[in-house]
Design goal:
The structure is a homodimer of 221-residue chains.
Chain A lengths: L1 H5 L20 E6 L6 H11 L5 E7 L3 E3 L5 E3 L2 E2 L6 E6 L5 H4 L3 H12 L1 E6 L3 H6 L8 E2 L6 H6 L5 E2 L5 E4 L2 E4 L4 H14 L1 H10 L17
Parallel strand pairs in A: 1-2, 1-6, 2-5, 6-7, 7-11, 8-9
Antiparallel strand pairs in A: 3-4, 10-11
């Protein structure tokens, strides 16, 4: 046995050691941030999802510090130089997406990151970043109603929904503009933990939850 | 004249040079952040106020990086080692306030910062930090309805309002829990720029604004 060990090929592959920003056993929420992300697209869902049992939220970006469209700066917990196993990938929108849809490296990262994400949740024009890949093809999806024409022009293959506060199809939860992400986040709490838990978080945050996905005051039809 | 200048006392006071984090001519919003601030207390108002014409939002903290209760970290633009002229001082709440109400240095900073702030806007238990000073004494004020008993126990002298989504009295705008801050922020936009501007931002963010301060679904009476 010893001799066999000594003569084992030196080129044998080592197990890949992958850094994870998450603690073991947590519900792992990975949020993509970038310059000119829209503040509430990110922080509305972070507020609601962050009160779920056992949730852990980490930020991923192409660089260590990013600045929101409204000014305040966030610190990334990990970088897009690798992908990460997670339970929910959260993608906010904002003016920053207008240039990011042309970022080939980020697009490639997204395709790989989506495969390592149990579910994917886009808010507002965050959907545009997914629309530049083929992952939404054939799926029902929605986006910011003020940017609906632009986002839907990027890819004809998703089944775009012009009247929906949010849409859940396959592994993808896509929501309408900005505040719709907060309502969709409470839908996600309900989906995972039941209505009582969603109502607990709604009350804890003194929120008025629009709990009906078809109640879309900003529909474009 | 020259002789008089030469013999001028060397102990003459120099003008104080004060750093300002703001650009000249901006509507200067300074937001206090601290560990375990509640995400939406800060970012709901940042979203709405950040769309006002000419607004600039800067973060102030006792240290360079602070972590929200929900996990993500923010970068401070300036520190509480000095005070700053600003148009609006924004104070979010959160679990972090439970210890901060005993922080004597922060309390002293707040008293000085309030005098250099044209207006002061508290969200949720951010009101507790002001209640530890005397600046709200005699003023109508409100706070998070789930923490109402605690906050109001800190100081008998404000006229505490158990049923109010927000209250504006003197230079102080105080709001109820978490999401109420977002509604109060749109009230502030209306106060400064008129209803049309508030409605523009409401639509831009696909929000459903509770525009009636007396419509408080979480009132404790």
């Amino acid at each position: 046995m010893l001799a066999a060990g000594v003569t084992a090929p030196l080129t044998q592959a080592k197990p890949t050691v992958t850094f994870s920003p998450f603690q073991a056993g947590k519900y792992r929420i990975l949020a993509l941030v970038f310059d000119d992300y829209e503040t509430l697209d990110l922080h509305g869902p972070v507020e609601m999802l962050g009160h779920m049992p056992n949730a852990e939220i980490k930020l991923v970006a192409t660089k260590e510090i990013v600045k929101s469209y409204q000014g305040p700066r966030m610190v990334a917990d990990c970088l897009t130089n690798q992908t990460y196993d997670c339970d929910l990938l959260l993608i906010p929108g904002g003016l920053g997406t207008r240039t990011l849809v042309s970022d080939i490296a980020l697009r490639q990262w997204l395709v790989e990151q989506v495969t390592r994400s149990q579910n994917v949740f886009t808010v507002c024009t965050g959907t545009a970043l997914l629309a530049m890949t083929s992952v939404l093809n054939g799926r029902k999806a929605t986006t910011n109603k003020m940017a609906f024409e632009w986002v839907t022009s990027l890819n004809d293959n998703p089944q775009w929904q012009p009247k929906a506060r949010w849409v859940f199809d396959g592994k993808f939860l896509t929501s309408s503009g900005v505040s719709a992400g907060t309502d969709a986040a409470l839908f996600w709490v309900k989906h995972l933990h039941g209505e009582q838990e969603a109502r607990r978080i709604e009350a804890l945050t003194e929120y008025s939850w629009n709990q009906d996905a078809s109640n879309d005051p900003y529909a474009v039809v």
